[in-house]
Structures are given as structure tokens and as C-alpha cells.
Amino acid sequence: MNSCTPTIRNGSRPFSEDFARLAAQESLSRQDLVKILGAKKPEDIEAVRAEAERVLLANCGDGVFLRGLVEASSACACDCLYCGIRKSSRDVNRYTLSLDDILACARQCADYGYGSMVIQSGERADKKFIDLVAEAVTHIKAETRSEQQPDGLGITLCIGQQTYDTYKRLFDAGGHRYLLRIETTNPELFAKIHPSDQTFESRVECLGMLRDIGYQVGTGVMIGLPGQTLDDLAGDILFFGKYDIDMIGMGPFIPHPDTPLGDAPCPDVPERIRLALLMIAATRLKLRDVNIASTTALQALDPVGREKGLKFGANVIMPQMSPTDVRADYQLYPGKPCLDENAKECQSCLNMRIEFAGRKIGLYAWGDSKHAVKRRKRDDQPA
Ligand code: 5AD
User: Fold this and answer.
1) Residue 319 belongs to domain with CATH number
2) Fewer CB within a 10 Å sphere, N or C end of the chain?
3) What is the pTM of this model?
4) Tally of domains within the chain
């Protein structure tokens, strides 16, 4: 494509026909994805964005599903080189919410009509913590049933790599979705950003266990990691497809100064925002019916980053529900938004932002991805 690329007008925004045609292709190859991720001119980016939004609305509708996010513990047994709550970070106040705290957050989610919640934490496999999570899940299932939501809140877990038995126990307790980011699907890059006791293979194995047990499985990557290429990112999208992933959560890498990757060279902020938005769009174009979250990390780099994520094809937002007094102790990266707002303030701010993006809030619904719904129907068919 060159500077003579014809542009046509879409409403008031110019967009290029070449990129519109590329984005509308039936089956995008690795090279096509690289080209989409490399879009730089505003008219090229707009063409990709508009097609991703069209594909989203056609396949998933205009609802934005909310998952109240509760950060249950900032303690972590891992030492990931990018993460602000890594085990070796001495300045982190390590807290664990009580069962009552977690249940209070769940009740608040239910009261606000958020159809589901996410229990996230540092990676901990100790019995005390797993018992706490299992008990919390059991209580939430029993105590959040209502007329509007007879099955109670949907529960997504995001507590890292665990054994098969732990995953199974939490599933049997009522957790039905699990998020485990692969971080990058380039095994060499994975090895550069993790200590040697964490392997790419074991994470992939965990994703397989989660699927076998029956969870809806989510994964995702960081975007703009030091040394990461467009080809790596295209490979990430193909990986999501190959592993039949239902939900994607991904966001820009944000260097944390107290970590070994704090000074590592990475693309500048506008470039990471551009790449993160195009990753959402390209993933939507390739996978069509999955749920894609517009993540907090995007908002950390751009005050309207999450709204932009919705316009580029995302359909899930995870409003912050952790008690205000612990939010600052759970900072995976600097610049985390909503640190001192309470859940009520987050709620009204979010409603406004979603409506501003021209979308509807999907209240009192688990909001399973269409992809997972279709697989369930397939699995239920008699052989
Ligand atoms: N920048 C962006 N995202 C990060 N995460 C952890 N540290 C950072 C960082 N510095 C993401 C990882 C992890 C998720 C919970 O948060 O992808 O899986």
C-alpha cells in the first residue's frame, strides 16, 4: 500500500478501502494479521476498527457484559519479571481478603446487576487460600440468587496455575470460567520474562486441564513486551483459535519500575495503545464470537482506553469491586485507575462510559461468550 491508497468516507472519518477489504476477508492468514497489526495511518486504523465493530455487533450483539473484579489476595508465589506483586517485591503490602469481605463484594455485584464476578489474586496454591476461594465460591452461588438472576452470579476464577484437583474442586464448587493468561505464545519470549521454574508448556497444559474439566477458558497476552514482534502477536491470535479459547483478556505491557523489566526498552505509550487496540480488532476479526475484555491496563495508559477498546471490538468490562483500602496494594503495573473510588462511583462512571461508546449494558446476565454457547450445543448433540 502506498500514499496513493484511495480513501473513502465513512461518516465523518476517512478510511482506506484496502484495509477495509483486508479486514473483511473470510479467513485471515498470519500475514494478513501482521498487516492489520501494522496499520499506522488513521484511515487504515479506522477501516480495521469499523470492520471489527461490525463483526462484533453481527456475532455478539451490542451488549457489554460486566464482571465485578475482586482482588482477593496480593500475596504471590511467583516471580514474573514484569509484575508489580512478584514474590521478590519487598514494598508490597501482602493482604488477603476475609470470606466476609469477598461475600460483601459479591453482594454488591449482585445488587448492581453485574451478572458475574471475577475472583483474582496472586498465584497461591497453599491450602488455606484454596479453601478460602472454594468456600467463597460455594457461598456466592448460594447467596446471590435473585428473581432477576435465579442461578446467582456467574463466577470467573483467575488465580493462576493450580493442580488438576484444585481446578476440579473449584469447578465443582461453582466456578464456571477460568482466566489464565499465556502472556506470550512465543516460547523464547516467555522464557525471557519468567523465571526458569515457570514454563510455557506447563501453562499450556493448565489451559488443557481447564477445558477438560469443563470451564469456559480464557487466556490472553501482554502487548508491547520488550522484543515482541508483530509476528509474535499474530501467532498469539492463532493460538487463541487453535486452543478454542472462549474469552480473551489482553492489554498493553506497562513497565513497573520495581521489577527487572522496569527499564527494558519497549514501544512508547501511543504505540502500545495503538497495538493493543489493533490486537483487540484483529482478534475479533479472526475469532468472531469470543468474549474480549477491554482491560484496565488500557485505561491506565489512556483515560478513555476502555471505551476505545469497546469501539475496536471488545464486549466485556471488569469494573473494580475490591474494597478501596486494598486497591493500592494490588498494583501489577503503575497508573492503575480507580484507586480511590468506591464501587458505587466506579459503577456510575462506567455506565456513562459504556453509553458514550454507543452500547448497552448487559445486566443480570452471565454473558457467556457465543463461542462457548455454540460449543455447549455441539457437545450436547447425540453422537
Ligand atoms: N503490565 C501489564 N500487564 C501486566 N500484568 C502483570 N504485570 C503487568 C504489567 N507490568 C498482567 C499479566 C497477568 C495479569 C493478571 O496482569 O498479563 O496475567
Assistant:
1) 3.20.20.70
2) C
3) 0.94
4) 1
